[in-house]
Write a structure and sequence with these properties.
This protein is of the alpha+beta class. The protein has 2 helices and 5 strands; from the N terminus they run H-E-H-E-E-E-E. It is globular. The termini are far apart.
Length: 118
C-alpha cells in the first residue's frame, strides 16, 4: 500500500514541478513600446524586447516583477507583463522578472483582434 501512496505523491510533485520553470532565476530587459492596444482598454502592461530564455511555450504566466536598474500582443512572441495598480512611465527602463509559473488557461475567443473603437 505504501508503494501506491509514494507513487501518487511523486506524480503530484512532478505535475507541480512541470508548471514551474526550474530554479531560482531572474530575467532583466528594457521596456519597449508595443502596439498601444492595452492602453486603449486601460490594461497596464509593459512590453519587454526579449522573452526570458527559459520560457518556451506561449501562454499566461505569473511572476514576481521588479521595476528597477500580447494578452494583446498580435503576431510576435514579445513578452508583455501586466502590472497591477501602476501608472508610471517606464519606457526605456529595465524591468526584472523572477520566479515564473505557467498557468494553463483556455479561451473561446481570441485576443488577436483589435478592440472596438469608441
Amino acid at each position: 500500500m505504501w508503494y501506491l501512496i509514494t507513487a501518487i505523491v511523486l506524480i503530484i510533485l512532478i505535475l507541480i514541478k512541470v508548471n514551474h520553470i526550474s530554479g531560482p532565476w531572474e530575467h532583466s530587459d528594457k521596456v519597449v513600446r508595443g502596439e498601444g492596444i492595452s492602453k486603449e482598454v486601460d490594461w497596464k502592461t509593459a512590453n519587454i524586447s526579449k522573452c526570458p530564455p527559459k520560457v518556451k511555450e506561449q501562454g499566461f504566466y505569473s511572476c514576481t516583477t521588479n521595476y528597477g536598474k500580447g494578452t494583446l500582443v498580435r503576431s510576435t512572441n514579445q513578452c508583455e507583463v501586466h502590472i497591477h495598480d501602476f501608472n508610471g512611465d517606464i519606457y526605456g527602463k529595465e524591468l526584472k522578472l523572477k520566479d515564473i509559473n505557467m498557468h494553463k488557461l483556455s479561451f473561446s475567443t481570441t485576443f488577436h483582434k483589435s478592440p472596438p473603437k469608441s
